[in-house]
Q: What sequence folds into this?
């Protein structure tokens, strides 16, 4: 069992096509993860990268905390079930399931136990000696699952395993797979384009589009809280209704002004608290999404509802226990095309409506989803990560209604009106000059969301503790993260999260002429490696010498005589059992042969009698017709029928004979295979026990020789490891900025080389440095302090630094107190940077 971690995984083909972009996800042990999306979205490619069947272009894949990018598929301890089953047609079910274990040289008796265990779980006990051609699609899929689970893998991968089955079998196999996951308690990753499979099987579902993750969440949360229009439309059958509209606000009401129709609905503002206020200007176009069950045309529910709107009925889809009613809010629309005025309503009847009839509909906008028309992202997310408010900037302050935020002088601000954007994490609670009232508190996953009312404005903050509703809280803002902009310009720019620089990546051999002191460092690394392996070899030799002393105390002569006697007795017993099995096997096969031949003769006789009778019946029927019929046209038709009957009767006889013979042959073949398979396994198990005993006796008899051989083998392995490690000691890599070099770490170097192969040294990289990753060091880059600012208790130094010949402005948080104009040298912690290859935008570290 294992957890699985994918960090910034990319798949880029040689022609530049990105099949998968920046796939990042943690999969916990025993989770059932489903990747779902339309064809070509990258879900199967992602699965194949996990399996090792596709190379990873960039990023890291971890299984149980170990990176496995370069590990062969067979060594990853995963199992995969393919869409087309991939069974060997010439092997029985037993042989198909056992084949993988045989390749790994698992003892036959263990294989037998494991196959019976898996077949019992999957209900395949009665089919072990059948071949795939004699089984249904669902049975074959269970065999493929059985073969996979026999490996006892850390991770089970399933690539659209049910797509070849009919609807009934798919439903049955979904239950089988869910039950299997419950019994095995291992990690499952499942790919499908069928949202029903995704919603019923997954503990979490990954929705993908164009190679990118759109949302990861539980099935229920995907349905109730989609992050964007694509997820909202993809999840749910039939898909969500989408209407184009603008929104406006008056007093405590929000008005929905629908485009392309006269519909207008008002709802209380408190029903849509998470809606970003800037969308209430009656200018921003949005998509309003509503599930079919959140719209009703039931006359009993609409007749007294003042918010009801007119829709024109188009057509119906009867689905048994429910009916889908298609209508259009545009009374001139037809309701058939997928437009922003079409409405699909889920009801229990047609309510005696007729196509073309205009009826009342009530939209439950308390349950609506709202998406920006241009970005298609939700503007009313379940967890608001950004507060967006209309504001005014004047005299170094931000004014939001009654709230006035005085900015530090170090933040440059232009006067004007615009929109304020500030992250919910950047509202600091329990300290600061502002007071707010907590009107709601909500726990969403592992995050705590606080609703803060300030005057007539609402702010959202992510908290690290619980708060009491109705209480007052002091708060402040992280002024470095405030953005204010309008359509023309930015009035306030946030401090960048990182300082960005460009650099190249080179190896030691390229840079050694410019580096001083590294030759001695490498020599010392080689000496340390040799000392490490001298110590390991010394421990190994002492263990060997102790075992040899113990072995010399054993009386080998007496032991050999005892072993020989026991072995001969066991050998005789096994040979007799095998002989007895062969006799029983031959007898049973002969019985099957005899019964099969007799059955074939019987089938031929039965078919001949059946069709002779049919021939005579038709002959008598035709003769009787000729005697009594006087109509020439009827006579002509009957003669034609009689002729066709006589012509086709031999073909039908042959088809029936072939069908019955094939059925009997399958029964015969199954019986023979079952018998042969049983005795083959029995004899193999007997021989395996004998071989195991012989090996043990051989070790006992020549224990000193065995110990010597084992010691030499382990000593040789250590020598090989030592040589490989010595070769690695001069494999140093550096980032180069102008004439300055920064040594890379082994982890970063491995990621760079793995991601880009031999092209790693011909690329340019963007390095992003956090402000708190700097330290003063005499060997660092030249820098000059140009200013400082205290924001939220932290001192940010504004420095000009020379990375590559051109001075660059950075912000750094340092422990030391510095003066304006002071010259310093700065180094940065390379383990805390982010690295991106600039050509195709691959995030490497």
A:
């Amino acid at each position: 069992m294992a957890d699985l971690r994918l960090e910034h995984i990319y798949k880029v083909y040689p022609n530049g096509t990105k099949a998968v972009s920046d796939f990042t996800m943690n999969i916990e042990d025993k989770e059932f993860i489903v990747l779902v999306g339309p064809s070509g979205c990258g879900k199967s490619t992602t699965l194949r990268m996990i399996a090792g069947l596709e190379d990873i272009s960039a990023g890291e894949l971890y299984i149980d905390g170990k990176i496995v990018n370069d590990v062969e598929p067979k060594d990853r301890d995963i199992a995969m079930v393919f869409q087309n089953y991939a069974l060997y047609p010439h092997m029985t079910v037993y042989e198909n399931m056992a084949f993988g274990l045989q390749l790994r040289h698992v003892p036959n008796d263990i294989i037998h136990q494991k196959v019976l265990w898996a077949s019992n779980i999957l209900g395949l006990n009665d089919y072990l000696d059948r071949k795939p051609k004699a089984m249904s699609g669902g049975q074959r899929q269970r065999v493929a699952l059985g073969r996979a689970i026999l490996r006892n893998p850390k991770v089970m991968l399933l690539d659209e395993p049910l797509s070849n089955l009919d609807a009934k079998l798919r439903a049955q196999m979904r239950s089988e797979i869910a039950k299997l996951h419950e019994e095995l308690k291992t990690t499952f990753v499942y790919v499908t384009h069928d949202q029903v499979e995704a919603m019923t099987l997954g503990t979490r579902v990954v929705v993908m589009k164009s190679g990118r993750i759109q949302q990861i969440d539980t099935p229920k949360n995907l349905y109730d809280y989609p992050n964007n229009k694509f997820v909202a439309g993809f999840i749910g059958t039939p898909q969500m209704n989408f209407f184009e509209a603008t929104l406006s606000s008056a007093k405590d009401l929000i008005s929905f002004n629908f485009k392309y129709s006269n519909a207008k609905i008002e709802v209380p503002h408190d029903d849509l608290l998470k809606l970003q206020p800037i969308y209430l200007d009656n200018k921003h176009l949005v998509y309003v999404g509503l599930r079919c069950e959140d719209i009703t045309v039931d006359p009993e529910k609409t007749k007294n509802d003042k918010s009801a709107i007119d829709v024109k009925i188009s057509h119906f889809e009867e689905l048994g226990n429910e009916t889908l009613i298609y209508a259009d809010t545009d009374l001139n629309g037809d309701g058939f095309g997928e437009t922003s005025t079409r409405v699909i309503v889920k009801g229990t009847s047609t309510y005696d409506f007729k196509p073309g009839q205009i009826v009342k509909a009530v939209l439950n906008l308390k349950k609506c989803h709202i998406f920006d028309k241009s970005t298609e992202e939700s503007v009313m997310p379940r967890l608001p990560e950004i507060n967006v408010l209309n504001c005014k900037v004047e005299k170094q302050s931000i004014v939001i209604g009654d709230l006035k935020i005085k900015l530090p002088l170090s933040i440059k601000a232009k006067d004007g009106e615009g929109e304020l954007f500030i992250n919910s994490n950047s509202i600091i609670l329990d300290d600061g000059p502002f007071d707010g009232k907590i009107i709601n508190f909500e726990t969403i996953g592992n995050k705590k969301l606080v609703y803060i009312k300030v005057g007539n404005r609402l702010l959202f903050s992510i908290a690290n503790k619980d708060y009491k509703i109705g209480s007052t809280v002091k708060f402040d803002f992280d002024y470095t993260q405030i953005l204010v902009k309008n359509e023309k310009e930015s009035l306030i720019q946030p401090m960048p999260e990182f300082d960005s620089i460009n650099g190249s990546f080179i190896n030691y051999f390229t840079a050694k002429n410019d580096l001083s002191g590294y030759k001695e460092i490498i020599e010392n690394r080689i000496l340390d490696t040799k000392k490490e392996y001298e110590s390991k070899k010394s421990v190994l030799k002492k263990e060997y010498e102790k075992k040899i002393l113990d072995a010399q105390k054993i009386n080998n002569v007496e032991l050999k005589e005892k072993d020989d006697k026991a072995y001969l007795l066991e050998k005789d017993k096994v040979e007799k059992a095998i002989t007895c099995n062969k006799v029983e096997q031959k007898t049973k096969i002969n019985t099957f042969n005899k019964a099969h031949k007799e059955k074939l003769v019987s089938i031929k006789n039965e078919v001949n009698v059946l069709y002779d009778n049919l021939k005579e019946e038709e002959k008598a029927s035709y003769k009787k017709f000729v005697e009594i019929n006087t109509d020439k046209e009827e006579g002509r038709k009957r003669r034609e029928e009689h002729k066709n009957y006589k012509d086709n009767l031999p073909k039908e006889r042959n088809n029936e004979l072939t069908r019955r013979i094939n059925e009997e042959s399958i029964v015969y073949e199954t019986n023979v295979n079952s018998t042969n398979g049983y005795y083959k396994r029995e004899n193999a198990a007997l021989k395996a026990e004998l071989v195991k005993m012989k090996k043990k006796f051989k070790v006992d008899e020549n224990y000193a020789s065995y110990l010597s051989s084992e010691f030499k083998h382990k000593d040789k392995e250590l020598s090989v490891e030592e040589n490989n490690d010595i070769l690695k000691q001069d494999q140093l890599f550096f980032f180069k900025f102008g004439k300055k070099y920064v040594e890379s770490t082994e982890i970063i170097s491995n990621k760079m080389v793995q991601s880009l192969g031999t092209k790693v040294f011909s690329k340019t990289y963007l390095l992003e440095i956090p402000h708190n990753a700097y330290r003063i060091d005499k060997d660092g880059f030249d820098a000059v302090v140009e200013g400082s600012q205290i924001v939220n208790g932290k001192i940010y130094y504004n420095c000009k630094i020379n990375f590559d010949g051109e001075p660059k402005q950075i912000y750094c948080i340092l422990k030391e107190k510095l003066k304006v104009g002071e010259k310093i040298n700065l180094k940065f912690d390379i383990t805390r940077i982010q690295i991106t290859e600039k050509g195709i935008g691959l995030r490497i570290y």
